[in-house]
Design brief:
By secondary structure, the protein is α/β, with parallel strands linked by helices. It contains 11 helices and 14 strands. The strands form 3 sheets. It has a 10-stranded mixed beta sheet, sandwiched between helices. A two-stranded parallel sheet has the order 1-2. It has a two-stranded antiparallel sheet with strand order 7-8. Helix 4 runs parallel beside helix 5. The chain is globular and about 70 Å long. The structure holds S-adenosyl-L-homocysteine and iron/sulfur cluster. S-adenosyl-L-homocysteine binds near residues 118, 165, 219 and 261.
Length: about 350
């Protein structure tokens, strides 16, 4: 039987698992101290834990299932990690360094079934969901990497914006959040965690009902159904008005600010007229919303899409600002190392396929 990653268990799940097997309740906190504070990489290093408990853990769990395939570091400090899962699949994780801290962007699925027409992750359909353990392990691997340099750097923020649609892997996503957020372990504040969705309506309601302070970002990319469906086929089944109803519910329930992500594609969704349409769509929520304008990171396979011109980006931004919509233009991180969502993975897979042909 394949052993599970210990990182996949929430604190409550680990406590139950241990006590059901005759172990004392406090063992769970000891194990978590070793995993998340002292950050050992083997159960045998957990020296204050009794032998029988260490053996029990070793027989049932593993600590590391991800293998580092390669890593790249950009001039601006951004690091991109390509990991091999135990079934051979590749996933990517990005570390971004800001003035306010170090943020890790995690992957939630192997590939993505949503298939947005601009996104490298959608080039291959989803082969499986990641387990909660595999998602936590990405953060831990990055943290271990920081630990090995010895500069006391800590992962302080998490964005769930890597490969995959997190709301299509909801249970594992929520367990992941519980693990990284818990004060008993890493203690990454809920307000420092952001989940991005392409707009899976039902799950926006569930997320709002979960009663957590985690930030939500919705990938909008267009202010009307015709354009949005052209860019994101998910809009056919989950049209803008339904997404907006769910967003209203989220805002009312949580009173938290929501982010709308908007990729600017040259000549597609970046005109002044489209900016005005966007203002009309969200002006009733301007107190509790923020628009993140994202310069498109070109993907080789999608020749139809180019990054918007600087002038169009500025005009678009100005129109939103003048109409009282809070917004910003996302600074490109690590553009010299293929840092856009799914690009490193898709390039590596292309290389592998080409090699296989030789
Ligand atoms: N599936 C989720 C989360 C992962 S994608 C979602 O779509 O929201 C995270 C963000 O990266 C999304 O807003 C997505 O639109 C954006 N993105 C994808 N490919 C991109 C590219 N080539 N350039 C810039 N942003 C991209
Ligand atoms: Fe999937 Fe998000 Fe990429 Fe769309 S943008 S294909 S939802 S990962």
């Amino acid at each position: 039987m394949k052993k599970e990653s210990i990182y996949g268990l929430t604190f409550e799940q680990l406590t139950d698992w241990l006590t059901e097997r005759g172990q004392k309740k406090f063992r769970a906190q000891q194990v978590w101290d070793w995993l998340y504070r002292k950050r050992v990489k083997a159960f045998s290093d957990m020296v204050n834990i009794k032998k029988d408990c260490v053996l029990l853990l070793e027989e049932n769990f593993v600590i590391q299932t991800l293998e580092l395939h390669s890593k790249q570091e950009s001039k601006d400090g951004t690091m991109k990690f390509l990991f091999k899962l135990d079934d051979g699949n590749l996933i990517e994780t990005v570390l971004m360094r800001f003035d306010y801290g170090s943020s890790v962007c995690v992957t939630t699925q192997v590939g993505c079934n949503i298939g947005c027409s601009f996104c490298a992750s959608g080039l291959l359909s989803k082969s499986r969901d990641l387990t909660s353990g595999e998602i936590v392990e990405q953060v831990m691997n990055v943290q271990h990497n920081m630990d090995s340099v010895g500069k006391e750097e800590r992962v302080s923020h998490i964005v769930v914006m890597g490969i995959g649609e997190p709301f299509d892997n909801f249970v594992n996503l929520m367990d992941f959040i519980s693990v990284v957020n818990s004060d008993r372990g890493l203690g990454i504040g809920a307000r420092h965690i952001t989940v991005s969705t392409s707009g899976i309506v039902k799950k926006i309601y569930e997320f709002a009902d979960a009663g957590i302070q985690v930030n939500l970002a919705v990938s909008l990319h267009a202010p009307n159904n015709e354009l949005r469906t052209k860019i994101m086929k998910v809009n056919r089944g989950q049209p803008i008005e339904k997404v907006m109803e769910a967003v209203d519910y989220y805002l009312e329930k949580t009173n938290r600010r929501i982010t709308f992500e908007y990729i600017l594609l040259d000549g597609v969704n970046d005109s002044a007229e489209t900016a005005h349409e966007l203002v009309e769509l969200i002006k009733d929520k301007k107190r509790l919303s923020y628009v993140n304008l994202i310069p498109y990171n070109p993907v080789d396979e999608y020749i139809q899409y180019k990054q918007s011109k600087k002038g169009s980006i500025l005009t678009f931004y100005d129109i939103l600002m003048k109409n009282g919509i809070q917004c910003g233009v996302r600074h490109e991180q690590g553009s010299d190392i293929d840092a856009a969502c799914g690009q490193l993975r898709s390039k590596q897979m292309k290389k592998d396929r080409e090699q296989a042909k030789v």
